[in-house]
Give the backbone structure.
Amino acid sequence: MNFFPIMVAGLLAVVAAMWANLDFLNEKLLRAKPPLCAPPYEVAWLPWKPGLVEFTRDGERIVWLQFASDWDMTGHVNEKRVFSDDDLLQTLAKHRVSLIKADHTNLDEEITKELKKYGRFSIPTNLIFPADLDKEMIILPELLAPELVIEALDKAAGR
């Protein structure tokens, strides 16, 4: 008796089962939207460019726009205080917040225009843009606390 056709048929059945399982897995992975960060929650800021906020805020993502500089001590205190808080970092991940930083260290004219566009004139300035394009931006105070930022992010998410 020739076992070759039986082996080929068995091998084809195994390959077909594996192929079907891969298709299912790929479909499941394509539908998943993982957070931008996961433990240990590395915070990564995109450098600001004209139009980046509008491009990133596509109806699905909350955007946090921070105007900062190397010479601004309040901004440094804010960052140490806020980004050392695990609850805040989890909220950033949960809401898939895009972080954009406009570095005004060298008094860039375009960044000055952008600040004025939002009615702001000082550093630090932190703005939260809800994912819903019809909702107004949230202006955070100069001195930040994790609870305050979490509340603003939850509000921007519609919660």
Q: What stands out?
A: Residues 22-38 have pLDDT under 50 and may be disordered.
